Amino acid sequence: MTDESLPLVISAPEPRTLDLIFTPAAQAELRRTYRIVEADPEDIAGLGDAVLGEARYIIGQPPLSAETLVRMPNLRAILNVESNLLNNMPYEILFERGIHVVTTGQVFAEPVAELGLAMALNLARGVIDADVAFRDGTELWGGEGNRSARLLSGSEVGIVGFGDLGRALNRVLSGFRAKIRVFDPWLPPSMLREAGVEPASLSEVLAMSDFVFVVASVTSENRGFLGAEAFASMRKGAAFILLSRADVVDFPALMAAVASGHIVAASDVYPEEPLPADHPVRGLKGFIRSAHRAGALDSAFKKMGDMVLEDMALMDRGLPPMRCKRAERETVSRMRSKPVSVN
Amino acid sequence: MTDESLPLVISAPEPRTLDLIFTPAAQAELRRTYRIVEADPEDIAGLGDAVLGEARYIIGQPPLSAETLVRMPNLRAILNVESNLLNNMPYEILFERGIHVVTTGQVFAEPVAELGLAMALNLARGVIDADVAFRDGTELWGGEGNRSARLLSGSEVGIVGFGDLGRALNRVLSGFRAKIRVFDPWLPPSMLREAGVEPASLSEVLAMSDFVFVVASVTSENRGFLGAEAFASMRKGAAFILLSRADVVDFPALMAAVASGHIVAASDVYPEEPLPADHPVRGLKGFIRSAHRAGALDSAFKKMGDMVLEDMALMDRGLPPMRCKRAERETVSRMRSKPVSVN
Amino acid sequence: MTDESLPLVISAPEPRTLDLIFTPAAQAELRRTYRIVEADPEDIAGLGDAVLGEARYIIGQPPLSAETLVRMPNLRAILNVESNLLNNMPYEILFERGIHVVTTGQVFAEPVAELGLAMALNLARGVIDADVAFRDGTELWGGEGNRSARLLSGSEVGIVGFGDLGRALNRVLSGFRAKIRVFDPWLPPSMLREAGVEPASLSEVLAMSDFVFVVASVTSENRGFLGAEAFASMRKGAAFILLSRADVVDFPALMAAVASGHIVAASDVYPEEPLPADHPVRGLKGFIRSAHRAGALDSAFKKMGDMVLEDMALMDRGLPPMRCKRAERETVSRMRSKPVSVN
Amino acid sequence: MTDESLPLVISAPEPRTLDLIFTPAAQAELRRTYRIVEADPEDIAGLGDAVLGEARYIIGQPPLSAETLVRMPNLRAILNVESNLLNNMPYEILFERGIHVVTTGQVFAEPVAELGLAMALNLARGVIDADVAFRDGTELWGGEGNRSARLLSGSEVGIVGFGDLGRALNRVLSGFRAKIRVFDPWLPPSMLREAGVEPASLSEVLAMSDFVFVVASVTSENRGFLGAEAFASMRKGAAFILLSRADVVDFPALMAAVASGHIVAASDVYPEEPLPADHPVRGLKGFIRSAHRAGALDSAFKKMGDMVLEDMALMDRGLPPMRCKRAERETVSRMRSKPVSVN
């Protein structure tokens, strides 16, 4: 039996589920602290005025109309656990009313950074091809097998995008004494310097790096901004590692740059997912493939629930949310990442 | 024409060569600063009293007899660039006379640490099998492909051996907020604490780690000290990464522990090198193979020459060598690593 | 002659001046990029509709009425360079319209942290009294003079408040291997853990620390929250260092705790400033005094101008400000720090 | 009753005592593990052949003759807890026989570094004079009192000498984002780079630093090497902080440089200790005085005993000592620090 005095939370976390994003202990705490109303995300309006009128939080990002929001006078926050912002609610009204829209994408930062680092080290040392050759009995021993091997330590690294993912990359790179240049037009240069990296233009990042990591979100302005010219400007033999969204690159141009031997590359994301069986990237030498697996770890999903609980606890006490990332009035309409349909 | 007033250096760096271990600039400096006598390592005694009498340094570790050493009154140091200490010279006499015997194995620390980290991340995320599956069109997308994936960040890590390799590993792990336990019976616990790691027994390291890195040298006492019992004591699913010498493990027991699914593993070293074409490790699931490639990078070899030059410069000024690692009277006879025959 | 197409900025930075907060180069850039209208802060309404209608930014925090704001349709941000938020404008309207109110108090974080560290080390080692005794010829030599001396390295440290100041303190403490506990009820515990500190209750921070740093802002809820009981709960001989505002402590109780010998203390702030000539803190043994000098360095003021320029550049491009700190709808009315009248 | 099978240790730690350098627990462990023979340091030879013949270690640095050493066939190490090496034993014989001579001076590194940092911050911010003025009622408030104040963060720092003290300084400076240049002619440049500092000449360190820390030992070659010319080459207003031995500077020249207003300074050491009551440094403006108190903390002395126990434990197992610092054959006779007579 639920305590009617508990604050009311509408649960519509699709495509996530509460079981995916909360550990059993966290979900128990959620249910102990709040009245949870599980809702059909396609019919929030149908919940009735009693529920809408009391609702303090929505977990999820169901479509919402201006009319429905009028019926929700106590709403304080929409906690988006999908993490890409859809254009399915009147954000301007939410900002006016001071209803926070927050996302939990930070949970993917560590998993993505670790996979990105693995890719960089694998490209630098030919780890995958060497293991495959060893299986086949064609391995080369010692220095023979290291003709093109090189170190990440002491190298020059470029990072495109310095949000949560870029910061996590910077952290896992901290033991490598690398010189790290960052391009992020949404941040003031002094904040990059405070993080210990060097602010740089995109062309500097491309031309002066041994390893380039791309962790920029797709926006209405940067679709396909990394094309043939960008790859041509990279150092011969440099590594290009794509971790955010395929839409920021011209994928055929990337494959061509690798096929020509100018650069090596790795990617976790593709123009189509899943990819056709005959897609040429499958057989491309000098390319490491990962099937959109960088972030989707169970431990990452479980952190979403922790973040949601921490921020709701702050808001329950009249404080602003600090743990999740808030959507910004200026940029919410610029974000163009496709939502995921599978976890 | 050589300046006869320059200090004399006997060059016998086999299996290395001066061209391997010195950059052109460093070799030019070497030849500008010293008279280099290139010697047959098997016949140092045949060099004649003029050369032996003047020799200040030997680069290499040629066999030396007590009689030959008597003829070398000005010898200050033997700079061993193979880096494993052979039992081919009367070390006791060298120690008595204060002739330094130094090795340059530290050059391999960073390359080995980077490969070790790559192996750990690959095992944690199934990176290699995922790429191979992608080539075949059998890849799993998103969370589907991450059933057993986990993070290094925040995990518990064990390191066996805390010499140059262990320290380099600790450094590349510094961005991962891991709890790191170290077993090294040759170091006082307080020095491990000062390095930010937790001193631990071997059994603690094995039983309490998600990732175990073995970077211990082979000594007369530790041959095969990691066997079936050790692997059984590890956590289910933990990763065992062997980077130093195969002789410290019972290799068949390691393979059995992986084959049973209890642990996953990676190794750069093998009981025989090269390995027979039909060796079962070639097809072993849950095992990453590298053909003794961890250290042998060209950039590492070139650092040897730099180290040699720096320490000879100190000794030229009457100071002790600080850059290379000195052989110790107590332990020189305990070291049992097989020398390499190829670079 | 000013270019009429430049964005218009109203300058009302009192008690600062543009010369105080901008370097000559930065001020030149400001005047090259914007049309600056220097205004009487007490009469913004009198500027006329032409200026108000075009104004994009206000530098300063002049009183503003709702009526005046209606006349400013293009206003994007109020850049408060005093840094304490006064209750002299209708914040709710500003939040509704998405007009950012930002402060530049972060510039004081490093200077305050450095002085706080100096105070902690001085208290731990009796540095000031030792120098004064040396001047007088009554110094004690060597261990004689170190009876109560102790290290910060390896000690337990507590920080109350983890905004910019707390974070800067944590950074300057990073080389001391101290265990750092933090009390900050406005932050989720996981964010403190990510910063490498341990979240703790106020009573834990007080009772388990060798050094307690107070950098919390005054709010409507925490006035005088550190009183006799708090000081009594501290470790015998521990150091209490007050760096934010005197209103968070019961100052007579603090003096009594020091006078009794239970703790030692240092403060940069006082219930009255300046302090009467006969105030007892002037002669108090075990107390280090600083006359509100912690933050007010010229280099800090000059950073204000840099921050203002960086954020206006972002907003000019339609992006949100990232460099300065934004006032929060939930907390703006809770802040109670007295504004400064002198720089 | 002592177990006659325990290894024998001769105790002659003057001017230290066992109670000074061992905690009660450590001394209990010492006595549980070893037979301790407390000896008159001036008459080791008088101990008798039974004791001399069995002695494995000496704690202290009593005078020893070649003849006495002949009677000590089982001696493995002399553990010098005074930490300055006197010329009172035949070091050459000790080196030939492989008897380690080790010192425990590293215990002073952290205390000295912390005091050095306190001095730097005090000089940068005028902390001491400000407190003295506050006692007198002549304090200046806010920016008024900060006319010459500056930050350590982001400054340029020079360190002369990079032994244990220099490294400890580098560590406590790690949170300050300072550019650190080091002059140490006994270390190869690459080791300085690995420690994250920039190798530099003495004149570069002097001319390019805002803060210069001197932690170099006195040797036969460097007596008085920092004189009027050195101070004149420093930046106007820079801070000179002397922490090792007064003999490395021309002390009157240092005072003159401060008196002229060219630099500010602090010192823990003096040409005579104690210093005459009328010595002019007592009243010198711009100078911070400490009466050789930098290292002599009780916690530092107690660490000596821990170091001794850890290294004896290694040597008991046939391993070389790793915790204490070994005297070097090349440099032992160059060291010229005066021994201390008080702790």
Automatic annotation (TrEMBL), chains A, B, C, D:
GO cellular component: cytosol
Molecular functions (GO terms): glyoxylate reductase (NADPH) activity; hydroxypyruvate reductase [NAD(P)H] activity; NAD binding
Pfam families, per the entry: 2-Hacid_dh_C
Keyword Oxidoreductase: yes
Domain D-isomer specific 2-hydroxyacid dehydrogenase NAD-binding: 117-294
UniProt keyword terms in alphabetical order: NAD, Oxidoreductase
SUPFAM superfamilies for this protein: Formate/glycerate dehydrogenase catalytic domain-like, NAD(P)-binding Rossmann-fold domains
CDD domains associated with the record: 2-Hacid_dh_8 (cd12167)
Designated name of the protein: Phosphoglycerate dehydrogenase-like enzyme
Organism: Shinella granuli
